[in-house]
Amino acid sequence: MFLVSRRYTLLFCYLFFSLILFVLSEEASSINNNLSPDIRVLIDNSRSMQESDSENYRISSLLLLIKLIPSGAKAGVWFFSDKIVPLIPHGVVDDAWRADALRIIEKIEVKNIDQGVNIPHAVDKALYDISDLGTSKYGAGIILLTDGGLKISSSPIVNAAASSEFLRDIADNHSKINVPIHTIALKRRADKRFLSNISYITSGLSYYTEKPEELAEIYVNTLNTIENRSFIPVTKDKFYIDESVREFTLLVFLSNKENSIEIVSPNGKRYSQTRISEESAWFKQKEYMIFTVDNPGIGAWSIHSNHTYKARVTVLSDLTIEALKYPSSIPVGSENEFRAWLNFKGKKITDLAFLSSLKFDLTTTTMLGGETRIINVEELAPLLNGDLRVMVPGFRKVGRYHLSFRLTGREFRRIFPIDIDVFALADSEINTRENLIRATSYMYPSTKIILAVFVFLISLSIFLLVLRRISAQKKEKWLRRLSFTSSLE
Fold it and tell me: Whole-structure pTM over 0.70, yes or no?
C-alpha cells in the first residue's frame, strides 16, 4: 500500500512541476515576443496625387525611411492605383538592399495615369505571404498613404459597397494575421472615415495632413510604432550619451529650409554639414537632417540651431528597453496593461538593487486645442522578476493620446513613446472590434505560481482523502473476512 501511495505522490509532484515549468515558459515566451519589424509601404499613385503632392514628397520621404529602417528588418514598397506595381522589392534590409532601394528612388519617374484606387488589391499584394506570417520571426505592419478612398468604379454606390465589404473582410481576418494597417490621409478629399476605420479595425494609427512635406515625419512616427523602439530624450537642446551606447543617430526635422544645425560633443568638438569626421556621417534634405556617430563621447551633447526644430536620438546600445506590444488603436473605456523591462546585452535585468537605483515613470498626454496636456504621471516600481507593469485606465474621450515611459538614472536616460488612437464604436459603420475590447489579462507570474500551488495542494488533499478512504474500506473488508474465518473455526 505504501508503494502505491508513493507512486501517486510522485505522479502528482511531476504534474505540479510540469505546471510550474509551463507557467514559466509562458512568461518567457511573452518576454521574447518582440519581433523584428517588417515594414510594407503602400503609396497611392493615382492621377489625383499629382495635384495633392506635386513635389513628390511621398517619394523623397522614403529616403529617410530607408535610411532609418534597422538592418535585419524587412521592408518593401508598392505603388497602387488601378494596378499594383512593386517599387522596392520586399526583402531583408542589409547594405545591398538599402543601396538598391536608394538607387531606385533616385531614378524613379513618377507618372500618375490611372484614376482608380484599389486598396483591397494593394493590401492583398502587400500580404502576399500571409500564410507564413503566423510563424515568422518578423512583426509585419502596413503603411497606407492615399489622398482619396477606395475607388474601383465610377459609381459611388459600388465604391461604398466595396468599402463595406473590405472592412468586414479585414475585421474577420485580423485576428488570424494580426497585421496593423497605419493609414495616412493626405488632403481634405481623402476618405478619412474609411481610412480611420481600417486603422481602428487592425489596431493601427490613423494620420491626416494637409501638408505633403510632413510625410517624412509621419513615416518615421509609424516606423517607430512598428519597430517598438526606445530613444534618448532631447531636453533643452541637450541629450546625454552613456557608456553603453556604441552608436547614435540624431534626426532633426527642420522648421525652415534655411535652418543651420551644429552639433557639439562633450569635449567641445563641433560637427556641421561642412565639418564632419571619419567617425561621423551627415545627410541633409530640405525638411530634415540625419547625423550619425560611431563610438560617441560619453556625456552631454548639444544642438545649436538658428530656427526651431524637432529632434530624436536613436542608439545602438547594450542597454535597451523592451516592452510588450501596446495596441495602437483602442475603444473608449478600454483598459490595457503596459509592461516593460530592461535588457543588458540581450539579457533581462532582474537585479533589484540596480533597478531600484533608477527612476521609472509612465506619463500620459493628449493634444487639446493644439497644446500638449499631461493627464497622468504614474511612478513604477520593479517587480521581483524585473518587470515594470501597470494597468492604463480607459480613456473617456476620442482622440490621439501619447504614453511616454521614461527611465532616468545618474548615467542612463531613455524614453519609450507610444501613440494611441482612441475611438468610439458608435463612430464606426461596422462594429467589428467586440473581440478586442476585453482588457488585457493582468496577472503577475508570481500570482500564477501561487494559484498553481493552491490547485496542486487541493488536488493532493482530495487525492489523499480518497486514498485514505479506500485504505479504510479495504482494512474494514479484511477485518470482516478475518472475523468470518474465526467464526467458522
Answer: yes
